[in-house]
Structures are given as C-alpha cells and as structure tokens.
Amino acid sequence: VSLLYFYDRWYTAVNFGYAIVLLALVYNYKRETLQVFFPVFFILLVPFFIVNGFLTGSWIHEQVVWYNDAENLGIRIGTVPIEDSIYALTMLLTVFVLMEKFSEKYPSQEEIS
Predict the structure, then answer these.
(1) Is the residue at 113 inside a domain?
(2) Could you give the number of structural domains in the chain?
C-alpha cells in the first residue's frame, strides 16, 4: 500500500517494490524457505537496529549516515528509517534463496560421497 502512495520517493519505491516481487516469488515457489528465514531474520534485526541506530545518530552527537526524508516515508524506528528494515529483509532473503538454489544445483563434495 505504501508503494502506491509513495511511488515518487525513490528509496521507498525501490525497497518496497523489490520486496513485493521477491516475497511473491519465494512464497509461490519455495514457501518453506520463508518458514526458516523469518525466525532468523527477526533475531538478526536486534543487532541490525543497534548498528544502524548508531550510524544514524542514536548514541552519538553527529550521525554518520543521513537520510533525505523527501525520498523515504519519514517513519523511523528510533533513528532508523523503516525502509532500512525492508532493505535488510530483501538483501538477506536474496542471498539466502540464491545460496539454497546454488547448493541444490552444485552439491558439495560431502553430499556427493
């Protein structure tokens, strides 16, 4: 829904658009992957928000990373834009799905023996 209203904000549009496509593909073709991925992802959000919070100015006087609120929703968890959690989801899920795909296509030597 956010994508429809905020299509002119590049950071939001790219993150949410890719997330919709990726989640739809994984849900339709490899649904069991999501059952493994999501519990791990929610655990990984804890260190993600700590590090990203530090970079966006949570515990320091001058932020290292600055986000233009004209290009995102302006909704933040602490000092972290909500789009960053969607970016983390798509980045990690993409790698996870590709690793599974390549491990099926190219089994390790231990699996062959």
Answers:
(1) no
(2) 1
Among 46, 23, 47, residue whose Cα is nearest residue 96: 23
Residue 32 placed within a domain: yes
Q: What three-state secondary structure class fits 77?
A: strand
For 38, the domain range is 2-107
Amino acid at 78: G
| 112 in a structural domain | no
User: Partners of 77 in the beta sheet?
Assistant: 80
Please report where in the chains the tokens 């609120």 appear, as a residue.
Answer: 69
**Residue pLDDT, tens place only, 45-98:** 999 999 988 888 777 778 788 777 787 888 888 888 889 999 999 999 999 999
**Residue 16 near residue 86, CB atoms below 8 Å:** yes
Q: Determine contact, residues 86/15, Cβ cutoff 8 Å.
A: yes
